[in-house]
Every structure is written in structure tokens, then in C-alpha cells.
Specification:
The structure is a homodimer of 232-residue chains. Chain A contains eight helices and twelve strands. Chain A is of the alpha/beta class and 232 residues long. In chain A, helix 2 runs parallel beside helix 3. The interface between A and B is medium-sized, with 38 and 32 residues. Chain B binds a DNA duplex (30 and 30 nucleotides) through helix 6 and helix 8.
Chain lengths: 232, 232
DNA sequence: GCCTGCCTTTACATAAGCTTTACATTTCCT
DNA sequence: AGGAAATGTAAAGCTTATGTAAAGGCAGGC
């Protein structure tokens, strides 16, 4: 039913077996790593995990260290587990980027409920990563080369224009508020009377219109902008 | 620094005062509701909350009920609090849509860490994604795309019209007073002889009637308006 | 130091849409 | 029925958001 892919990093082999069975029944696919090093490798591999269950006490690389290193490159949600009921541990874990924390021994149904809650919430995130190539209608955007083409003609975009277009394309069909654009692209809150975003959008439209007639960026007055999905 | 807006729903006034102070220092803006009904109202008002802290034991409407009703229209993250350490409660809360659960008495720093973790994760979402899509009869409303369709035909609504319709649809079957509409949509009290709401409703009706005959918005004279539930 | 490119600000025209006005119509009360 | 109050709505008025050209400013490169 759920078909979500989880990674469990825990050195207690008996325990992992048990959890594995329990979570399989719930409809999750579960991979297991019995030490921190392997766990980190798997977590950062090409395999996409929807959620990582991470024990704190681990051989080779402890849970905090795994989390810290994972967070340098990945935003995968992490639920930490620990034998200690130590508050300090909890707080530290959450501070350095864990999404939830559960002290052993825990009720399996609580674990299951917390997993479900996290997965449910994560499903709301836009699926596209910022690394992915995007193609919508006659517009193609390639993050690796910073290149955008419209009807096969390359466009000369500035870095900011590129980022704005990318954000709009990732969220195509959806409203993207000016404040979101400002925060994500310019790294600052939208101030009153700040017209920068309008200008970048205006410039984008001008460049996009060079090789294509159809309107691509729609204004939602009082709200923001929206990249129109191809109607064909 | 954070500047995040939280809503605390808890009837223990002393306790809320304390938490309020504590969280203010952390840089959060905190609104407080001392009963479930008020809390639900505030949570569904035009004010956007980044996170709701919800006690289970509440006068008028208990925490579970508040959460259930909130979730019919909003996906705002909720952290539940409870005096009981009851696992069953926790699981129930998480099942019906809470994002986290903390048993009282808790370490303030743990609360703070969990809030931070949730807010951090939620910051990755587009702003308007915390509102549910609504569908009643042949009318569909989608906050993320700011799109309303009637019998599968898209309607061109203004921002205000959209918000009025959303409010009416959220409270379908119930009376929504003009003052409520004015406060939640326009952000101001309804003044005498103010006909704005009437006009917005009038325009809405006109647009809705384009593709559908049945009356959708009923006038309750002297009181307000009501979105009629589909009779089929 | 001086380009050069790009982001931001300024300024103004324009358009969108919210509010007000005015009047017709309906409802309710006595 | 008569009248007051509330509502429906077209149209005018007004406020504000937006589009965009042009000027200003800032930083990196040569």
C-alpha cells in the first residue's frame, strides 16, 4: 500500500530483524545497515530513501556523526532512535537536523505512527530536486550547465533569472508567492515596495518571448506568479 | 531571527504565560487560545501559522476534535501536547494528522528543539501548501494553484473572491456571518453600510452560475451567507 | 582605477480589482 | 398594506499592484 522505502541504521541485529518484519507488514520496504559507515554510504547512494531510522549507538560512526555528515548533502528525513532516554541526546539530535526522536524501548505502534506522520508530511514536498533537468513545453532548463533553451534556441539568462525560472518550473502549475521567490532565490524576505522580483520576471518574460509566443509566466495579482503548464 | 508565528491552544493560563515568555525569547511570535473553539477559529482564520501547539485536554472542543476539524481545511503542522503519557493517545493523535507529540511534563528545551525541527522542515514547503483542496458537488477549489473549477470549467476569480469562496466552502452548511468574512478575508471589522462583502458574493454567484444552475450560496438575511451542501 | 555585468531602485503608465454609490428589489415587521 | 431595513447588482470611483524603461549602485575582473 504505502510502498515507501526506508533505511534502518542500527547495530542490534536481532532488533533490526524484528523491526524489519514489523515494518514489512505495514507495507514499507526496509533496507538495513548494521554500522554507521555503511549506513551513511547507503543513505548517500543513488537509492532514494523516504525516511531514515537512525540509532545513536553505532560502531564505526555514531548516529550524530552520521546525521551531521548526511546533512551536508541530503535532506532526507531522519527519525533517531536511542537506548538512552537522555533529554540532552534528544535535543542534540533534533538540533543537528533530525526530524523526530524516539527513546528505546518504544511502542512499535508509536514508531509506526511517527513514521507515517513523517512520510505523510514529506509527501507534500515538491518532488523535483534542484539538480534535475526540467522540460516543459518548448522550454528546457539544465542546472548542471546553467543552460536554458526555448524552442531549441539557447537563452542568455543571468544567474538570478535562471533561479527564478527554475523555481517556477519546479512548481509549475502552482502559485509561487513573491515572498517565496525572494526568500529562495535572493535569500531575503520580500520588503514592501521591493520590485526586484517583478523586474526579474519581466526580464525573463522578455527573453522567453524571443522564440515563443505563448504566455508562460502568469501573474496572480496580489499573490505571486505561476508557470503555466503546456496546454497541448 | 526565526520570526515564525505559532499558535498555542491550551487552557492552563499560567502555563501558557510561561511558555509564551519562553518561546518569545526564542524569537517566535506566539498567539494563545485558551479553549478549543477559539483555537480552531484562530487556526482557520486568515492569519498564517507556521505551527500549532495543541493540548489534548481542552474546554469546549478537545484537542483531537480540533485537529480533526482543522484537517478538513488546513494542513498546518501540529505538535500535540498532553498531560497523559498514554501511548494510545499519542498514536491516535499522530494517526489523525498530528506531526509530533510530546507528553507533559516535558523539558522546555526538548519542546523548543522539536518546534525548531518541525519549523525547519516546514520551511521547505511552499507557503500556500498548508491548505487543503476542497470539493463540493461540481465545484473544486485548489489553494496551491489558486484555481477554482465548476463542472470542470476553470473560473477566473479574483484573490478576494477566491478567499470568500474558500471560507464558505470550508464552512459549508454552516452560517458564515458577514463580519466573519470581513475579518477573515479582508482583515477588518465589518463597518456599517459596508457593502463590499455583498459585492464579492454577488460577483461569485455570477461567475459560479456560468456553468451550473443550482444555487450554491444562500443568503441568510440579517445574518450572513451559507454554502449549500450538494443535495445529490 | 576603470570596465562590465547584473542586481536594485526609481519613476511613471497602466490595469486590475476593491469599494462606494445609487437605485431596484426583497424581506420582515406591525 | 405600508414602511423600514436588508440585499442584489450595475456602474463609477479610487486605490494599489504590476509592467517596464531607465538610472543608479555595487562587485569582480583586468
Amino acid at each position: 500500500m504505502t510502498d515507501k522505502h526506508l533505511l534502518l541504521i542500527d547495530d542490534d541485529i536481532e532488533y533490526t530483524q524484528l523491526l524489519s518484519e514489523y515494518l514489512s507488514v505495514q507495507g514499507y520496504t526496509l533496507d538495513i545497515a548494521n554500522d554507521g559507515e555503511l549506513g551513511l554510504n547507503m543513505a548517500t547512494s543513488a537509492t532514494h530513501y523516504d525516511l531514515i531510522l537512525l540509532d545513536v549507538m553505532l560502531p564505526k560512526l555514531d548516529g550524530f556523526e552520521v546525521l551531521k555528515r548526511l546533512r551536508t548533502s541530503h535532506l532526507t528525513p531522519v527519525l533517531m532512535l536511542t537506548a538512552k532516554g537522555d533529554d540532552y541526546d534528544k535535543i542534540l539530535g533534533l538540533e543537528i537536523g533530525a526530524d523526530d526522536y524516539l527513546a528505546k524501548p518504544f511502542n512499535h505502534r508509536e514508531l509506526s505512527a511517527r513514521i507515517k506522520a513523517l512520510v505523510r508530511r514529506m509527501a507534500m514536498l515538491p518532488t523535483n530536486s534542484t539538480q534535475q533537468n526540467l522540460k516543459l513545453g518548448d522550454v528546457e532548463l539544465s542546472p548542471s550547465t546553467q543552460q536554458v533553451t526555448c524552442a531549441d534556441h539557447p537563452l542568455e539568462l543571468t544567474g538570478t533569472e535562471f533561479s527564478v525560472l527554475q523555481l517556477l518550473m519546479i512548481n509549475h502549475g502552482k502559485l509561487v508567492t513573491k515572498n517565496d521567490i525572494s526568500e529562495k532565490v535572493l535569500g531575503r524576505k520580500l520588503a514592501a515596495f521591493d520590485r526586484s522580483i517583478d523586474m526579474h520576471v519581466s526580464n525573463l518574460r522578455k527573453k522567453l518571448s524571443t522564440y515563443s509566443q505563448e504566455e508562460k509566466i502568469k501573474t496572480l495579482r496580489g499573490a505571486g506568479y505561476q508557470y503555466l503548464v503546456a496546454t497541448c
